[in-house]
């Protein structure tokens, strides 16, 4: 688990002008794979976590208890700093305090809270409504005050752009920064010009949600860096890739009754065993002669 070193490294890294590229992870397997790649942060996607854990849409259906449990599992299986989606904080101000402290204890280095009304909806989907700016300001103030570690990164997300326009989204971003947010996340800008406005408007780092076929133009991370962004997250990439690959593999098995000749890349069994930690199990059993209770 990244723990305090992960928090410190993420907070320190955000002072650098180079962009952080953070892939979306949604379970222990995707997290273990991403953790080996050398990324500087991982992003626990709410959409992917709710989908993989509950088989439901990311529409405010997952509870705090369900989600903090996922944070703990992912953090336990990784050493890379983890940014975790905490939706709206799962309720009022007391809930926000509990969420921040619970996510911290579970291993999150960064905690993202958004200003949507309940039930919240996934970004880049229609029908999102936001709470009054004053309500979200208080949530950010509580979040910043509640953290037990000064280097836990609080990320404030606004979904105001889609329904209220870019000017209101920028106004909210400024208010959330003043309330204590360490990073601002202006969700769903719709043009490159709006991305540029966001990148130059704030004194704190800004985050871009990169979604292929989403509402926001998909730009290379280097271009986002040039526009002023400090973090680029790719929340849906792995889930989409895995879902497409599994669909193709199951279709092949259904149609042919075999895996021979399948044109979907399959991880070698040896590599999968190694990824999931079987060598440690085998070494343990060799040392302790499992079943005898005696060590060598």
Automatic annotation (TrEMBL):
Q: Which GO molecular function entries does the Swiss-Prot or TrEMBL record give? A: lyase activity
Swiss-Prot/TrEMBL keywords: Lyase
The answer to whether UniProt assigns keyword Lyase to this entry is yes
Q: Which InterPro entries match?
A: ICL/PEPM (IPR039556), Pyrv/PenolPyrv_kinase-like_dom (IPR015813), Pyrv_kinase-like_dom_sf (IPR040442)
Pfam name, any one? PEP_mutase
Q: Which SUPFAM superfamilies match?
A: Phosphoenolpyruvate/pyruvate domain
PANTHER family per the UniProt record, alphabetical: PHOSPHOENOLPYRUVATE CARBOXYLASE, PHOSPHOENOLPYRUVATE CARBOXYLASE FAMILY PROTEIN
Q: What protein am I looking at?
A: 2,3-dimethylmalate lyase
């Amino acid at each position: 688990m990244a723990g305090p070193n992960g928090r410190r490294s993420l907070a320190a890294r955000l002072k650098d002008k180079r962009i952080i590229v953070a892939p979306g992870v949604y379970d222990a397997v995707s997290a273990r794979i991403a953790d080996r790649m050398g990324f500087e942060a991982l992003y626990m996607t709410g959409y992917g976590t709710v989908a993989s854990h509950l088989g439901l849409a990311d529409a405010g259906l997952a509870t705090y208890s369900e989600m903090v449990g996922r944070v703990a599992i992912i953090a336990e299986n990784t050493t890379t700093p983890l940014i975790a989606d905490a939706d709206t904080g799962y309720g009022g101000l007391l809930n926000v305090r509990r969420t921040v402290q619970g996510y911290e204890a579970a291993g999150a280095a960064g905690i993202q809270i958004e200003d949507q009304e309940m039930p919240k909806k996934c970004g880049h989907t229609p029908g999102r409504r936001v709470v009054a700016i004053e309500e979200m300001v208080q949530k950010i103030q509580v979040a910043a005050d509640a953290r037990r570690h000064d280097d836990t990164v609080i990320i404030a997300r606004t979904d105001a752009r889609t329904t209220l326009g870019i000017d209101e989204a920028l106004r909210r971003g400024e208010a959330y920064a003043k309330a204590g947010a360490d990073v601002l996340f202006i969700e769903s800008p719709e043009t490159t010009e709006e991305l540029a406005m966001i990148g130059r408007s704030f004194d704190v780092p800004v985050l871009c949600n990169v979604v292929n076929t989403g509402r926001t133009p998909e730009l290379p991370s280097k271009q986002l860096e040039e526009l002023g962004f400090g973090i680029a997250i790719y929340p849906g990439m792995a889930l989409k890739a895995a879902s497409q690959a599994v669909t193709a593999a199951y279709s092949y098995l259904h149609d042919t009754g075999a895996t021979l000749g399948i044109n979907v890349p399959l991880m070698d069994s040896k590599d999968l065993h190694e990824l999931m930690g079987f060598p440690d199990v085998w070494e343990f059993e060799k040392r302790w002669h499992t079943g005898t209770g005696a060590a060598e």
